[in-house]
Amino acid sequence: MNPILESLVTAVLLDKPEDPIGFMITWLSQKTQAPSPEAEQLRLRINALQQEVKELEQKVGGDESEEDDDDDVVDEMPPPPVNKGPRSSVSAEAYGKWNQKKEFVAREIAKSDSAKERIRSVLHKSFLFSGLDPKEVEVVVMAMEEVNLDANQRVIQQGDDGDCLYVIEDGVFHCKIKRKDTGEEMVVKQCEPGDAFGELALLYNCPRAASVDSTTPALMWKLDRETFNAIVKDAASKKREKYEAFLKSVQILKDLGQYEISQLSDALATQVYQPGVNVITQGEPGDTFFIVESGSLYAWKSPNADASLLEYGPGQFFGELALLRNDVRAASVTTRAESKLLFIDRKTFSRLLGPLQELLEKYAAQAY
What we know:
The protein contains 11 helices and 16 strands. The chain is α+β, with helices and mostly antiparallel strands.
């Protein structure tokens, strides 16, 4: 199933359909109507591997229960290896008694204290690393390798295998994919300082989904696959599982699909505020949207700091008004007790919650 699911996920990520379920049904239908030589080749490979696994399991079981016997007779030879041909996808690793997972040892690349601090600053801006604890951040910082580029250099080629990801400290990059009809490349995304790219091939163990070119001189940091899998991928999976169920309980988000919920859970950053702290202040620019995970807060307008306009608890949100209307904060929000807040920036808010703009405007009109 892995190769099929990987190809399907890649197709969804590239096309970004408005109706993901309908898109996936159509995609699978097309695949079943016209089986490709690659699919038949893959089926043969799977059959051969299943036979080999079965024989290995029998051999391992025999070794545990019987003494070695040099006169053992093999009743049936395993099928000859299948010609693999061009590599079309990468399946997930399988582990068993014959293929034990090696203990992870993080690599360490020497760097100055100022370089470490710069990397931490960049990682802090990237949602991909927001689920890491301080010790994990330090492992990633030490494993990262500095990369300097001139303008108009290709960093990633669509279709290649992916063995690393990049986090941008300085510079601008364009992500491009080939049009299916003409084969021409078109820009689908611009990456700026704080953004990461190249993670999809590592997250889903599939070929590069897009090409990436530098448009300016750039400085970025490269993280290898092994460190990503051992540290970042596990943390991202745990974070996603933790927050997906919570986000589905937020009333305003119930109309989002599973894909959008997953994207939102990946993008969330967290911060804990002590009692009596202003999270947002009336009159200041607003670039952040908050969701309350735990704790309690209240909204007020100057000069009546003790007069509560609204109370916020777990599952409630605030800060959307300034983002929707591109305006300053209409009120201050202060913590009553220690509070853990989830938040996203303006760019992520527009990208992921844009479809809810009308609903959010309606809610704001009623609440405020």
